[in-house]
Amino acid sequence: MTPHCGATSAEAFLPRTVPVVGSKGTNHMDSEPVPITGNGARWSLRLFEGWQLRSDGTAVVVAYRERRLLSLLALQGERPRAHLAGLLWPDSDESRAHGNLRAAVWRVQHLLVGVLEESQGMMRLAPDVRVDVHELRDLAHRLASAALPDVEHALHVLHRGTLLPGWYDDWVLEEREQLHQLRLRALETLADRLLASGDVDGALQAAMGAVTIEPLRESAHRALIRVHLMDGNHVEAVRVYRAFRLRLSTELGISVSPQIVELVRPLQTSRPMHSRHPRQLRREI
Fold first, then answer.
1. Domains and CATH numbers, the chain
2. Average pLDDT, the chain
3. Averaged pLDDT for residues 242-258
4. What is the pLDDT of residue 147?
5. In percent, how much of the chain has pLDDT > 70?
6. Of 12, 77, 187, 190, which is the most exposed, with the fewest CB atoms less than 10 Å away?
7. What's the predicted TM-score (pTM) here?
8. 202-218 burial, b if ≥16 CB within 10 A, otherwise e?
9. Beta carbons within 8 Å of 108's beta carbon, 6+ residues apart
10. Which residue did the predictor score with more confidence, 149 or 84?
11. How far is the C-alpha of 158 from the C-alpha of 162, rounded, in Å?
12. How far is CA 20 from CA 32, 129, 148, 168, in A?
């Protein structure tokens, strides 16, 4: 199944002088789309929170067929023509699929000069095209080994929305799930590393971001509980634990793991001896 090909909300507010790539006669100033030569142009492609291509900061309206081609190359990297044709037009016969691909490639190469490269039958986006998905992947990789990045920028990158919302091609769904999991692991890693460096506020934002994205993910809740414990907020730590335990039981009928129980277990003996209900916390844990 493929998404609706009509005008997107991004297209609706663009100036009418912006060229429409792959859509003959849509530009009100010319009967044909106007090529963007790319001489010194800085291209950026957004796939999170909706599709958008920009040239030097100016949004360019691109037809649906060409959008799909650029998106697939941005997500999967360099690929042969046969692979692209098969994924983009799985319900068409081989001849028609390759014809559609040739038309899409011609449009991009002639109207968005410098965005697409081809060598020995292999196609790819030009290396200097900035893609938000690549930024997320690079950040996640660096978090696993390199020095901590700028926290504000990292949180901004990791809090971007859904990949290509409204697109339901199989290859989009697979990439969406992979990036969803990558984002969650990166947020948890960032929370742990910031907590280890003493940045409790940053760690709290990262952990809460992971919990918000996936409310039933235990590793995200463990990260959030660790932040509250480090900050001395024992009540918040127990509240997060109890709410998560109840949600798992109610929605999935399963219990929390021993790992998360061990995080709050030490709080059983941390209450004053004169407490009116010395067994309450132990009973609820």
1. 9-128 (1.10.10.10), 131-284 (1.25.40.10)
2. 86
3. 97
4. 85
5. 79
6. 12
7. 0.81
8. bbbbbbbbbbebbeebe
9. 21, 22, 66, 69, 70, 115, 116
10. 84
11. 11
12. 9, 19, 41, 24
Average the pLDDT over 49-73 and give the result: 96
pLDDT of residue 263: 96
As given in the structure block, the two tokens for residue 100 are 């559609």
CA dihedral 219, 220, 221, 223 (to 10 degrees): 90
Of the candidate ranges 62-76, 121-135, 172-186, 265-279, the one whose mean pLDDT is the lowest:
265-279
Could you give the CA distance from residue 159 to residue 210 in angstroms, rounded to a whole number?
Answer: 9
Give the amino acid at 202.
Answer: G
Tokens 């190359």 -> residue: 73
Give the C-alpha separation, 266 to 228, whole Å: 14
- Sheet order of strands, 58-62 included: 20-21, 58-62, 52-55, 43-46, 130-131
Using CB atoms within 10 A of its CB, is residue 255 exposed (0-12), middle (13-18) or buried (19+)? Answer: exposed
Q: In 3D, which of 182, 185, 179, 190 has the Cα closest to residue 149?
A: 190
